[in-house]
Design brief:
Chain B: It catalyses: a quinone + NADH + 5 H(+)(in) = a quinol + NAD(+) + 4 H(+)(out). Chain B: Its EC number is 7.1.1.-. Chain B: It comes from Actinomadura barringtoniae. The complex is a heterodimer of chains A (about 300) and B (about 100). In chain A, strands 1-2 form a two-stranded antiparallel ribbon. With about 300 residues, chain A is an all-alpha fold. Chain B is mostly helical. Chain B is built from three helices and no strands. The chains are: A mainly alpha (about 300), B mainly alpha (about 100).
């Protein structure tokens, strides 16, 4: 064994020992497995929100991998820009489109999934063969490049060698911001209705029989204050207007007044009506007293 | 660790993203898969940067992030505009950009 060979062997052994001591293999395999499964889940989840959350997992894993690989600046940018901004933008749009939107499982192109899987596996094999044939030696490590600190090193390159690309980036960002504004802007085809227009419209509708004022709240005069209880009008009739139309369409008014005391529906409704009448009379008595005093005071 | 491991992970993530683009029909999810592919290439760039011992790869990854951010802004705005007129975010329904 020559001396050169010996030193080369030493170097590899030393590199392996340093590797094991830094705990890099453990973190790499952990993050690799988590990110691969999260990415697979992202494809297979039917709900778009779940996909977005799994994408967040993948991005956080990648940020940790960047940190391991001696790119702390990129790791932070990954968390701030991707997980913080881009993914939140995705979630915003998902909320606007509707969270409950799910993909239908019907294939519009026959055999689309099968052929996509075949193409994916073929592509992976292609990449694997390419990587296998490439001469990937041991990594040189970033100790020297990061000697001043990662951010300093990046800044030195960014503002000298890549300064033109950096300037072009600013133009790109401005264009993107403008584009988003243009695309999000909606031209009004009709003038915006003023408060006066809205009021006129409401009273014109009132002339046609629609109540122009606000609708009564549910359960206002009843013994209950649940949203599905219709308000009882002072004469004791339940007001269908006070309940959400969806609820009103679903059940009968009388059945909603049935309560836990074991009364029949009509009995419960009669009890409620009687209670309302009593309360109305009480209120009238109470308001009659002070009013007389006031008038006497005048 | 050898850069090969990182490159293999990057290749796997890229392939998963590509299959997602082919398979999914919700435009937003397709877009997320494109983001996954961009992230995978970033991982490869960072690994190459470490392999060669200089920071150029990290600079490229940084530029990829900037371009991806701009792309997301415009792309999501387009998806929203299509959704507003079509009431759907499926890529099957968007075959005419004008109406």
């Amino acid at each position: 064994m020559t001396a050169a060979n010996l030193t080369a062997d030493h170097v590899t052994v030393l590199a392996q020992v340093a590797d094991k001591q830094s705990g890099e293999p453990f973190f790499f395999w952990l993050l690799a497995i988590v990110s691969t499964f999260a990415a697979l889940g992202m494809i297979f989840m039917r709900k778009a929100v779940h996909s977005a959350l799994l994408l967040a997992v993948v991005m956080l894993c990648l940020a940790a991998l960047y940190a391991i690989e001696g790119a702390p600046f990129l790791a932070f940018v990954q968390v701030i820009v991707y997980t913080g901004a881009v993914l939140m933008l995705f979630l915003f749009v998902l909320m606007l489109v509707g969270v409950s939107s799910t993909d239908s499982l019907v294939e519009t192109i026959r055999g689309q999934r099968l052929w996509a899987a075949v193409a994916g596996i073929g592509f992976l094999v292609l990449l694997a063969v390419g990587l296998g044939n490439a001469a990937i030696g041991n990594s040189a490590g970033l100790k020297q490049a990061n000697a001043e600190g990662n951010v300093m090193g990046l800044a030195r390159l960014l503002f000298s060698k890549y300064v033109f690309a950096f300037e072009a980036t600013s133009a790109l960002l401005i264009t993107a911001a403008l584009g988003a504004m243009v695309l999000a802007h909606r031209e009004r085809t009709t003038p915006k209705p003023t408060q006066k227009d809205l009021s006129t419209r409401r009273f014109l509708a009132g002339a046609a029989g629609v109540h122009p004022g606000p609708l009564p709240g549910p359960g206002t005069y009843a013994r209950h204050n649940a949203v599905d209880m219709p308000a009882l009008l002072p004469d004791g009739t339940p007001s269908e207007l006070s309940v959400n139309p969806v609820i009103a369409a679903r059940t009968d008014t009388a059945s909603r007044h049935a309560d836990l005391y074991g009364d029949t529906e009509t009995e419960a409704l009669e009890q409620d009506v009687a209670a309302v009448k009593a309360a109305t009379e009480e209120a009238e008595d109470a308001s009659a007293g002070p009013r007389e005093v006031k008038e006497a005071g005048k | 660790m050898s850069p090969g491991h990182y490159l293999a992970l990057s290749a796997i993530l890229f392939t998963i993203g590509a299959v997602g683009v082919l398979v999914r029909r919700n435009a937003i999810v397709v877009f997320m898969c494109v983001e996954l592919m961009l992230n995978a290439t970033n991982l490869a760039f960072v690994s190459f940067s470490r392999m060669h011992g200089n920071l150029d790869g990290q600079i490229i990854a940084f530029f990829v992030m900037v371009v991806a951010a701009a792309e997301v802004v415009v792309g999501l705005a387009i998806i929203m505009t299509i959704f507003r007129t079509r009431r759907s975010s499926s890529v099957d329904d968007a075959n005419l950009l004008k109406y």
